[in-house]
Design goal:
This protein is an all-alpha fold and about 110 residues long. Helix content is about 95%, strand content about 0%. The longest helix has about 100 residues, at about 10-109.
């Protein structure tokens, strides 16, 4: 017995079903791409968080180093002041010794 010819409605339903299958396949591909994009965004978010944490640690280290450098310069200034004071005392002592030597030489002559 020959197959009955399909009605126009049945052909339209078959065509719609094929189109839905194509659209379903496309939607599956889009879902996969969205899943990959979401994973990429998540990885990037984690990297940004790690970078932010690293920058905070770096900022804290720089702040500590600034304090160390500042204290080092303060110590250097104090030492230079002490050296200047010692140098002034040495110059005064040298003048005093020169005067004493000159007085002794004058008395001896």
């Amino acid at each position: 017995m020959p197959a009955e010819p399909k009605s126009d409605i049945q052909r339209q339903l078959d065509r719609i079903e094929r189109q839905l299958e194509v659209h379903s396949t496309r939607m599956d591909a889009i879902d996969q791409k969205l899943d990959r994009a979401a994973a990429t965004v998540e990885a990037n978010t984690e990297q940004v968080a790690a970078l932010s944490e690293g920058l905070t640690r770096l900022e804290n280290s720089v702040t500590r180093l600034e304090g160390i450098v500042e204290r080092g310069f303060e110590s250097l200034d104090q030492r230079l002041d002490r050296i200047a004071a010692i140098s002034e005392r040495q110059a005064a002592t040298a003048e005093s010794l020169a005067t004493t030597v000159a007085t002794l030489v004058a008395k001896a002559a």
